[in-house]
Amino acid sequence: MPEPTDAEVRRAVAPVVCYPNDTLPVPDLDLYRTAREGAEKVSEAIAAPREAACFRVAAGQFFRITSVEGPQVGDLNLWNANDLGERFYSGKSRALHGTHLTTGERMWSGFPYLRPMATIVEDTLDWYGIDEFGGSVHDVIGTRCDPYTGNLLAGSQYHHCCHSNLIRAVADELEVSLEEAEPLVHDVLNVFMCTGFTRDTGQYFMKASPVRPGDYLEFFAEIDLLGALSACPGGDCSAEHSSDTAACYPLKVEVFAPAEGALGDWVSPPVNGYDRTHGR
Fold first, then answer.
1. Structure confidence at residue 29 as a pLDDT band (50, 70, 90)
2. Apex 85 CA angle, 141 and 45, nearest 5
3. Which of 79, 57, 26 is nearest to 221 (CA)?
4. What is the pLDDT of residues 191-232, one digit of tens each?
5. What pLDDT does 243 receive?
6. How far apart are the first and last CA of the chain?
7. Residue 110 CA to chain centroid, in angstroms?
């Protein structure tokens, strides 16, 4: 198709942000951080290399994901612990906050709930920003490495990708079959992963994560949560994923409970107020 004569004029149209977020409810980070100061550790889970682990966090508690031995990325799923139909919605979180999440931004649940599930309160990699390649950390772009795409592209049968890791962990936690667990697994927050889109082809890329042992991402649980975290088989995702060749390390999840009364009159956010009549 020949290029139209006004092609450059069309390309030069200025963009408009789809979802201006200056009217979003603002999390009270000062309150959360004050409550965190006196919080006590109540549980811990370890996602072993090329495996996943589940954990539970009550509303008003904190959970921290930490790199403990070497550079490692993780894939995080969240559900409402009391209603597994409410789960993290990466697409809407991306639309509201951008392609990568950091301090003060939130993991939102899907329709018809559309409310904050967890708020990021601390991010030791928030210094990274956006690099010269357009890469940044903690993305809500990628889906999760999975065996179906591996089979499509390479004819492989690999069982320790994040999708499968999460399925096994959820099946064990809920005491259900793999077939029952699989539909519960959903698109993730790619914790510590450094990603972006190529400038020339617009393809999703990954590069070596800047995470180092001791780095962490910490959240405030806005509702009762069931979480699942996979230690990606790609390690720091510097070269590949869905293989047994990358150096992989565990990830630690710690849950902290604030002192009684530390959150004052804070309450979990209600589900979205749309009346759900859909024009009828």
1. very high
2. 70
3. 57
4. 999 999 999 999 999 999 999 999 999 999 999 999 999 999
5. 81
6. 43
7. 14
Give 124's contacts (C-beta < 8 A, 6+ positions apart). Answer: 214, 215, 216, 217
187 pLDDT higher than 90: yes
In 145-220, which ranges are continuous DSSP H helix?
147-154, 162-174, 178-181
d(CA 181, CA 172): 9
- Whether 241 shows a pLDDT value over 90: the answer reads no
Measure the CA–CA gap between 246 and 93, rounded to whole angstroms. Answer: 30
In terms of residues, how long is the chain? Answer: 280
Question: Model confidence at 1, in pLDDT bands (50, 70, 90)?
Answer: confident
Q: 208's torsion region: left (phi>0), alpha (psi -120 to 50) or beta?
A: beta
Instruction: Using alpha carbons, select from 137, 158, 160 the residue that is nearest to residue 149.
Output: 158
Running DSSP on this structure, what letter comes out for residue 10? H
pTM, rounded to two decimals: 0.96
